[in-house]
Structure formats: C-alpha cells, structure tokens
Specification:
With about 475 residues, the protein is an alpha+beta fold. It is built from 17 helices and 14 strands. Helices cover about 40% and strands about 15% of the residues.
C-alpha cells in the first residue's frame, strides 16, 4: 500500500509563470545569454576565456614514451579495454623497440561478449534460486541492460589470464566492433528471452544437469551471433614486425595466451596491478573492501573487489607511478566540467553562473553526487604525466591519454587538474610495489556486498 501524504502540491499558476517571465526579461544578461545559447553550444558559451588562457599542456614528470598511434574506440563502450591495452603496450613497445603498435581491442571484446553473456545466464539461475521476483528491483535492474560494452579492471584481468592478447593486425576491427549498438540490441533481446526460459525451468523444478544443458545451447546461439558480427579469433597466429632499426622479426604459430605469458607478461603483469577506489559516502568506510552483487564477466573468475581509500592516497600513488615511468589506468566521470574541444577536465573551465546565474554540479559534494545519481564512473583512460608543485610537492595537473582519436581533445590528450581529480576520479590501477602493506591488507578482508544498482557498480564505457 502506498503511503498517503498530506503535502499540498503547488501547481504552476498563471500568476507564478507570469512572474517568472517578467523577471527573466527584466534582466538584460538573460536576453544576451538566450541569444548566445540559441546559436551556439551551451558549453561553448559557458567556457571561461580566463581559464583557457592560463592552461599549459606541459608537465614536470612524464612517462618515457608516447605510444603510437592514438587509439579510437569509435561508437563503442570499450574504453576500459582500450585504456588497459594502451597502458600495456608502453613497456612492450619499449622492449621490442617499436615505432607503432596496438594490441587487438576486438580480441578481448570478443571474449568479453561471450563470457559476459554466460555470466549473465548463470546469474539468472542464481537470482531465481534466491527467490528474487521477476518484478523485484534486482531482476528488473538486470533486465534493463543484460549485456553491456563497459567494464572494470578485474574483468580485464579475468579475460587476459584466460585468453591472453594478440596484435591488432591479427584480429582487426569490424563494423560491429566499432559501432556496437546493433549487435548489443540483438544480444539483449536474446538474453531477455533466455531469462524467461531459465526462470521457467527453475519454476518447473528442472535438474542442474538440464539447466546446464539449456545454458550451453543458449550460449551456442550467442557464440554464433557474436562470431558473425565480430569474427572469430584464430587459435594461433604469426606476428611479423620491424623495429625502429628496420630489423625484421617473426613470432610464429603462437597462441594468444602464450603470446601474453612469454612476450607481454615479463614487461606488464596484470596480476601485479591492483585497483584502488575512492568512495566518500558516509556508508562506505575507507580502508574497507567492497564488492557489487551480480557484477562480473567470467564464471569462476576473480571477484571484483573495491579497496576503498581516500582520494589523496590515489593521487599520491599515481604520481609515484608516473615518476617510475609507469602509466596508469583510471576510471572517472569524464563528462563533468569537461571541455571536449579543448581537452580540459577542470572545475573552472565552465562558468555556469555567469550564463545562468546558478552553478551546476559543484553545489553538491562528491558523496552527494553519488547518492543522488549525479555522478559515477563512466570512462576509463590513461594517465601518462603529472606536474608537481615545487613548494608543496603536491600534484597540480595530469596528462591523460584518451581513446577517442587524434581529432578530438588536444590531439587525443586531456589536461586534468588535481582539483578535478579529487571530485570526479573514482578508481586507479597501480603496481603493488607502490602500495603500502596496510592498504594491501584490505584485499584480505571479506568484502561488504553492495547492491547491483549501487553507483560503484557502474562500468567504464563512455563513447
């Protein structure tokens, strides 16, 4: 039964609307702003000229090399994969003295689609056996988007440990990998259909063997759909390349997992990296471990663990990594206070108050933005440089490599201020060697389980 409120609702009367109209046109600044915003992009109108002219894309500490070419995820939510492979390729390219190189993003994407669908179908069984109703919040949430492009760091570790990696020319892009909407729509329709069928099996009392057989049959169809759209990776491949000295080399008949273990892992071991998050909500204590219900991509893979730490520690460890010539994978809410054209993540880049006579986003704290649905992690990128203030020895700004191509941002790069980092960065991945033992010990805790719809369960995928 819905509770009855005695609150008397306030309608917008003609008198109230006339007051709004009169006050709007009585202010000449409103008219100027209206004229500008009717012809120009609102964010362009709000861009602070004063802030722009004080920006410098130079940094005191930078990783040794820039990887080429700049990558472009195009119309897909694969930023988490691109960012991961962009970090991995830096030490790989240095060791093999390569001018240009890319790992195949589509290869990991293929296996994530297959594994993610299987994980989902098994989750359908798990939630049904828990007694979760079809119209309950959990199942309803899972059915909104049963298949997604986005991901988390631990999901990448699951994929690379099981399937390895391969060069991009050995498994190139397809139309469906660069624009994933059509394929995802087909997969989501099938997964909802299969949810109906699996829940019916549970209701009928089907045996575990019968359920596994049905899931296998369903996954054969999923495999066929994904394989048609993306292609199917070869079991083994040959990698031919010339280094900067124009010397020819050839790695013959190697599997993707062998390629990772023998040629990549000695220079970048994903299992030696740890993901630290910062969640300042009152309900989320620092120095505690958390996980999210029903979140994952590989059945039997590692659980996604959030080691919650103050943002200042994340900044410190990222700066130490950069000084040690290690680029850093990180997740953030990229769209807030972001000038896409200029490549700036800066709290002062948009002066909303000058245009609208009210501020936007910043009147709420980071914790409040999470609690009220205003902010969460949406995008993963790579931090490759930092500036350290000489007097305070604190980081002031960061260089970010994006995966939207060279034609956008500042030739593919973003300047991120430390003030912006504190407000909109949610997680970073650094090498264990930089992390204090007391922080590493948090991973040994039994994690608190957050609900599936918690903002910390969002996936990095921004296009």
């Amino acid at each position: 039964m819905v509770a009855v409120s005695n609150f008397e609702k306030a309608p917008l009367t003609e008198e109230v609307l006339e007051k709004f109209r009169s006050e709007f046109f009585s202010c000449p600044k409103n008219v100027v702003a209206q004229n500008a915003c009717s012809k120009l992009d609102v964010l362009d109108v709000c861009t602070s000229r004063q802030r722009v002219q004080n920006v410098s894309h130079n940094f005191t500490h930078k990783v040794e090399m820039d990887a080429k070419p700049l990558t472009n995820q195009k119309s897909s939510g694969r930023c988490w994969i691109f960012a991961c492979l962009n970090v991995i390729r830096l030490p790989f390219m240095k060791h093999y003295n390569l001018e240009e190189f890319q790992f195949s993003q589509s290869y990991l994407f293929f296996w994530d689609k297959i594994e993610r669908c299987n994980f989902y179908l098994n989750t359908v069984i798990e939630t049904a056996r828990r007694g979760e109703p079809l119209d309950g919040r959990l199942v309803s949430f899972l059915l909104v988007k049963p298949n997604d492009d986005g991901g988390q760091w631990d999901m990448l570790v699951n994929l690379i440990k099981r399937y390895g990696v391969m060069p991009k020319n050995c498994f190139p892009e397809s139309v469906c990998s660069e624009a994933t909407l059509r394929m995802n729509t087909i997969l989501m329709s099938k997964l909802r259909e299969y949810t109906r069928d699996l829940r019916a099996l549970i209701t009928s009392g089907a045996s575990d063997a019968d359920i596994r057989s049905v899931i296998q049959s369903q996954m054969e169809t999923i495999y066929r759909i994904v394989g048609i759209c993306l292609g199917i990776p070869a079991k083994s491949f040959t990698w031919e390349y010339r280094n900067k000295a124009k010397e020819y080399h050839c790695v013959e008949n190697v599997t993707p997992l062998q390629f990772y273990d023998e040629y990549v892992k000695p220079h970048f071991n994903v299992e030696e990296k740890v993901c630290l998050v910062t969640d300042p909500r009152p309900t989320s204590e620092f120095n505690k471990a958390y996980t999210v219900d029903c979140l994952g991509n590989v059945v039997g893979g590692r659980t996604i663990i959030y080691n919650n730490q103050p943002v200042e520690l994340l900044m410190k460890l990222v700066a130490e990594s950069i000084k040690d010539n290690e680029a850093v994978w990180f997740g953030c809410d990229v769209s807030k206070r972001f000038s896409t054209k200029l490549g700036l993540d800066d709290l002062e880049i948009h002066d909303y108050k000058a245009v609208f006579n009210t501020d936007v986003v910043l009147p709420m704290s980071k914790a409040e933005r999470m609690m009220y649905g205003e902010s969460c992690m949406t995008h993963a990128m790579v931090i490759s440089a930092v500036s350290i203030d000489k007097e305070t020895e604190e980081p002031t700004k960061w260089r970010v490599e994006n995966s939207w191509g060279e034609e956008i941002n500042n030739k593919g790069y973003i300047l991120m201020t430390s003030d912006w980092f504190k407000e909109f960065v949610y997680e970073v991945v650094v090498d264990k060697k930089h992390v204090p033992q007391s922080v590493m010990d948090v991973f040994k805790q039994e994690p608190t389980v957050l609900p599936a719809w918690d903002p910390m369960g969002t996936l990095a995928k921004a296009l």
